[in-house]
Amino acid sequence: MAALTFAHHILFSKPSVFLHSTKNGFNTFFSVSVPAPFLRRHKSTQTISASLLELGGVKISKEDVVKDEPTNNVPDLIFTKLGLQLHRRDNHPLGILKNTIYEYFDTNYNNQFHKFDDLCPIVTTKENFDDVLVPADHVSRSYNDTYYVDSETVLRCHTSAHQADLLRKGYTNFLVTGDVYRRDSIDSTHYPVFHQMEGVRVFSPNDWNDSGMDGTLYAAQDLKTCLEGLTRHLFGAVEMRWVDSYFPFTNPSFELEIYFQEKWLEVLGCGVMEQEILKRGGKTDNVAWAFGLGLERLAMVLFDIPDIRLFWSTDKRFTSQFTKGQLGIKFKPFSKYPPCYKDMSFWINDSFTENNLCEIVRGVAGDLAEEVQLIDNFTNKKGMTSHCYRITYRSMERSLTDEEINELQWNVREQVQSQMNIVLR
Ligand code: DAH
């Protein structure tokens, strides 16, 4: 399997900086603070009959989420994913994984953990960022990285968005599973919608007083024991290591890695919750731990699923391979259809970003887009920068015709020119 580099998963492990290193090793300057106008235009012009969704008890229509306004950058395609809740299907790899994690917490903590998996993914910027202390200049707040419904409402980009609210409501042991949304690149491990699980456990002085440790040390130790146990529950007897990390919401912060298939694989991020978050939740004398894990990332290795798009497949040849309660059945690829590569070169402008390009490609090709890869990059004497991107088209369910691919590519080229104001070479 290709190296798992889940840039999206570790977005928050970056301190607050504007320079974001992409997987291609090129630095992208994220100074975009207002949405580029082109984001609007790849909406379909048809009026879609009022599709009313219910998300965590909230009734939502398409018009509530996809709006023709400059502060909105949610494309049609993303709207179609809302409410699918793959993590709530007991026969789906993500549901099987979620249930296996539940089982671990239920047995080891005597059913003390409250489980939420139906909270509405449309949250305020306060919930998504401020409440968990994400700095004002953090890349994750940009329109380039996050889907904004309006300037104060986003599609949650992590399940941490629910931490503060649940603490305020008085919960002290909880798990939150949900779909999360991020504008991102296109390859076998990146998809703009994926799933996370968040865990939080709050302690009172009574819990640590007799231990001879201070609250923070006690929580950190409890956290590590808990997550090492969880990892063994999922992966069996694997080699593990703790790596110091950074998250805005925890201090100290760690990542847990396992040695799996001859590589160190990041399993989750976690840490001792920043005191400020607890304080705002009305818990001044307490200490807590928190963790967040990406379900796709773990399911891909546990079930041998080679491409993240497969999680969305409704093809029986995929869905019929998984059974409730059976973690780790190995997926048998039903067929590998031929890929088709199309290259595209253009002079970039100041507002160019790879995420914007990928949004256009997904808008045109949907899940037929397998990868968008920068294969050439140079700056001429006049200071103009040229990029060449290779787009890989491949269906996981059938062979594509030349005609079909040419039409997709033609549409991508058209939209890139008109929406990104870019000159193709
Ligand atoms: N929210 C983080 C992310 O999406 C994951 C995470 C890390 C959650 C550490 C936590 C935590 O609760 O303590 O990248």
SSE series: EEEEHHHEEHEEHEEHHEEEHEHHEHEEHE
Quickly count the helices.
Answer: 12
Q: How many beta-strand elements? A: 18
Bound molecules: 3,4-dihydroxyphenylalanine
Content of β-strand: 25-35%
Mean residue pLDDT: 90
**Coarse morphology:** globular
What separation lies between the terminal Cα atoms?
Answer: 34 Å
Instruction: Give the structural class.
Output: alpha+beta
Instruction: Specify the biggest β-sheet.
Output: 7 strands, mixed
State the helical fraction.
25-40%
Which residues form runs of ≥5 with pLDDT under 50? 1-8, 16-49
Walk across the major sheet and give the strand order.
Answer: 5-9-10-14-13-12-11
Radius of gyration: 22 Å
Walkthrough of the structure:
The protein has helices spanning about 60-65, 75-80, 95-110, 125-130, 165-170, 205-210, 215-235, 275-280, 295-300, 315-320, 355-365, 400-420, and strands spanning about 20, 25-30, 50-55, 60, 115, 120-125, 150, 155, 175-180, 195-205, 240-245, 250-260, 265-275, 285-295, 340-345, 370-380, 385-395, 425. With about 425 residues, it is of the alpha+beta class. The strands form five sheets. A seven-stranded mixed β-sheet has the order 5-9-10-14-13-12-11. Strands 16-17-15-18 form a four-stranded antiparallel β-sheet, covered by helices on one side. A three-stranded antiparallel β-sheet has the order 6-8-7. Helix 3 packs across helix 7 (about 215-235) and helix 3 crosses helix 9. It is globular, with a radius of gyration of 22 Å. Mean pLDDT is about 90; it is low at about 1-10 and about 15-50. Bound molecules: 3,4-dihydroxyphenylalanine. The site of 3,4-dihydroxyphenylalanine has 16 residues, from strand 13 and strand 14. The site of 3,4-dihydroxyphenylalanine (DAH) has 16 residues, from strand 13 and strand 14.
